[in-house]
Specification:
By secondary structure, the protein is α/β, with parallel strands linked by helices. It has four domains: 157 residues, Rossmann fold; 120 residues, Rossmann fold (3-Layer(aba) Sandwich); 97 residues, Roll (Luciferase, domain 3), CATH 2.30.38; 131 residues, ANL, C-terminal domain (GMP Synthetase, Chain A, domain 3, 2-Layer Sandwich). The protein is 34% helix and 22% strand. It has a seven-stranded mixed β-sheet with strand order 5-4-3-1-2-6-7. Helix 4 packs across helix 5 and helix 14 packs across helix 15. The longest helix has 23 residues. The radius of gyration is 26 Å and the shape is globular. About 1% of the residues have low confidence. The structure holds 2-acetamido-2-deoxy-beta-D-glucopyranose (NAG) (4 copies). One 2-acetamido-2-deoxy-beta-D-glucopyranose (NAG) binds next to strand 21.
């Protein structure tokens, strides 16, 4: 009798397990991910009770292993305080390449209670001024290798009374205060009088959307920075890992997720000055690297690089990052060995983010019940012409259906703060959607199209709006069209991105209308671009039109242009291609088109 009862219970359980496997195959993974997040939330709360609140606290918490950085950052803090007028609450812009002192200066300024703004090191002089002004910086710290960039705009900076610090022993002129000569004489003792920080306040500024003139300084709150620190841990890294970071520190990925992730674990970080496909695996072998951080482009460069013996002799077990397409991923693991890939999705401005923690190729994350519990979000139906959310007659938005791409939006909550862009109320408001499902509610609009499939997986579809991605950077279309507008022969320009087989992101393309009685001067355009924009923002293609298409609301029409791309067979408009070797735009013939599409010509 007992055995019978027992076996029927067992059979029932077995049936349940089978049923769960079939109907909810990801139940346990979803639950585990949720628990991990919850556990971290609890740990955070416990830490807060003990007074370990800020980013700096999290770092100092690991001080035993990180003592040198701690001492050196204290030395920097003292140098800033002694030599100049840097004080609590000041915004300090940081223009430095990847190097350990980037982190020491950053943390040193944290110790003084400053807000640091990371500047993109590729920017040109005019954009540098714009960036420094837009975040309201009182001082600028420059790495020794970048001093020339600053010298170009020295008169303007001096006029603004900007304090200029140079991370070097000597300076090219008296306008800079050198740091390295002073740091050596400063004490590395803990600073006793560290200012109190409200963790709901702003911590950092990170520039997004076009690193060029019109970039926006996004505020990153303490809370968001601290939550970002869990990235590597959520991906499965531990304190024993040696983590290789090659991405630029001025972006959120390398700084908040990468360095922050190492600090959180207390792991070893191998920081590379600049990504190099030829040195990647050699470095991994040399430093016993076990975890690497990537963006999609990086993996593609590695796959395109000729074979090196180290690519299979390394100990890398985990690659964590974002933007990896499934074709490259397959090639990546086939070629470089058994590396677990953890693909995520995140934004600088808001806290909405996903992580792929299942073995499914393709999706960026899950949209299960548990995920929505820990981080609410919605996908909204949009108008394919304007990319604006569709509203009903009563003015409310509509949820996209399962299997239909929608705009990702997330409600603003205490955990999902959006602190906006510095000094740019208009742009900040533009990222918000109001009265979405009921009067008065507010959502952050990511501008990204995602698809929720019938198995609760989320797939990334596209980035819409005023930016597109190319070579791992955001290109701001308004910025590029402004630059075009400065030329005497161009009346109007509409900038957008087009896809090319075999490339991540989108290559820039400009539909332009020439001024009456003017012709295209490709050389002049090329020279102008070289002076004003970083290379990744230069449009590869031109399309000459007699007038620009606009929508009913007089917004530039991009949808159709994007679809038609740069194929000379689909349009009568003359097309041009940027030939960098000739420093000119050349007519795009059918033959040239095929050479580009087939990969014979590389962009
Ligand atoms: C890498 O690991 C090997 C074997 O465990 C060890 O001998 C070597 O010193 C390590 N190298 C570094 C740079 O840590
Ligand atoms: C690109 O833009 C998005 C949205 O504004 C931002 O969250 C992200 O950090 C940017 N990425 C880079 C590399 O600038
Ligand atoms: C998600 O992670 C799994 C397991 O590591 C991997 O097999 C899959 O390719 C990943 N998906 C993406 C899009 O990276
Ligand atoms: C194009 O502009 C350059 C100056 O940048 C000028 O030297 C050249 O003559 C122009 N070419 C034509 C065809 O107008």
């Amino acid at each position: 009798m007992l055995t019978l009862a027992l076996s029927s219970v067992l059979a029932g359980l077995l049936a349940l397990v089978v049923y769960q496997r079939v109907a909810y195959p990801f139940f346990w993974l979803d639950l585990m991910y949720y628990w991990k997040l919850r556990r971290y939330g609890k740990k955070l709360a416990a830490r807060m009770q003990r007074g370990i609140l800020t980013y700096l606290d999290c770092f100092l918490y690991q001080t035993l292993t990180y003592r040198d950085v701690d001492r050196r950052s204290s030395q920097f803090a003292r140098a800033f305080r002694t030599e100049g007028s840097v004080k609590q609450g000041d915004i300090v812009a940081l223009l430095m390449s990847n190097e350990p002192d980037f982190i020491c200066v950053w943390l040193g300024l944290c110790k003084l209670g400053c807000e640091v703004a990371f500047l993109n090191v590729n920017i040109k002089a005019r954009s540098l001024l714009h960036s420094v002004h837009s975040c309201g910086a009182a001082a600028l710290v420059v790495g020794a290798d970048l001093v020339r960039l600053v010298e170009d705009v020295l008169p303007d900076l001096k006029q603004d009374n900007m304090a200029l610090w140079l991370v070097d022993h000597t300076a090219p002129s008296e306008h800079f205060t050198t740091l390295l000569d002073k740091v050596e004489h400063m004490s590395g003792e803990t600073l006793r009088d560290r200012p109190k920080v409200d963790i709901m306040s702003n911590f950092l500024f990170i520039f997004t959307s076009g690193t060029t003139g019109l970039s926006k300084a996004a505020r990153v709150g303490h809370l968001k920075a601290i939550v970002s620190m869990t990235f590597f841990q959520m991906c499965g890294a531990t304190s024993d890992d040696i983590i290789y970071i090659t991405l630029p520190l001025y972006h959120m990925s390398a700084s908040l997720l990468g360095i922050g992730g190492c600090i959180h674990l207390g792991a070893t970080c191998v920081l590379k000055k600049k990504f190099s496909a030829s040195q990647f695996w050699t470095d991994c072998v040399k430093h016993n690297v076990t975890v690497v951080q990537y963006i999609g482009e990086l993996c593609r460069y590695l796959c395109n690089h000729p074979t090196v013996p180290e690519e299979r002799a390394h100990r890398v077990r985990l690659a964590a990052g974002s933007g990896l397409r499934s074709d490259v991923w397959k090639e990546f693991v086939k070629r470089f060995g058994k590396i677990q890939i953890r693909e995520g999705y995140g934004l600088t401005e808001a806290s909405v983010g996903f992580l792929n923690y299942t073995d499914e190729v393709g999706p960026i994350g899950r949209a299960s019940y548990f995920n929505k519990l820990s981080m609410p979000f919605e996908l909204l139906r949009y108008d394919p012409q304007t990319f604006e959310p569709v509203r009903t007659d009563s003015g409310r938005c509509i949820r996209a259906q399962i299997g239909e791409a929608g705009i990702l939006v997330a409600p603003l909550t205490a955990m999902n703060q959006f602190l906006g862009y510095a000094g740019n109320q208009v742009q900040s408001e533009k990222k918000l959607l109001r009265d979405v499902f009921k009067a008065g509610d507010v959502y952050f609009n990511t501008g990204d199209l995602l698809l929720h499939d019938h198995r609760d997986f989320l797939h990334f579809r596209d980035r819409i709006g005023d930016t597109f991605r190319w070579k791992g950077e955001n290109v701001s279309t308004t910025e590029v069209s402004e630059v075009f507008g400065l030329l005497d022969f161009i009346q109007e320009a509409n900038i957008y991105g087009v896809t090319i087989p075999g490339y991540e992101g989108r290559a820039g393309m400009a539909a332009i209308v020439l001024k009456q009685d003017h012709t295209l001067n490709g050389t002049k355009l090329y020279n102008h671009l070289v002076e004003t924009l970083p290379a990744y923002a230069w449009p590869w293609f031109l399309r000459i039109q007699t007038s620009l298409d606009v929508t009913e609301t007089f917004k530039q029409q991009k949808g159709k242009l994007v679809q038609e791309g740069f194929n000379p067979d689909v349009t009568q408009d003359p097309l041009y291609f940027l030939d960098v070797s000739q420093k000119d735009y050349v007519l795009l013939t059918v033959r040239l088109y095929h050479d580009i599409v087939s990969g014979k010509i590389k962009l």
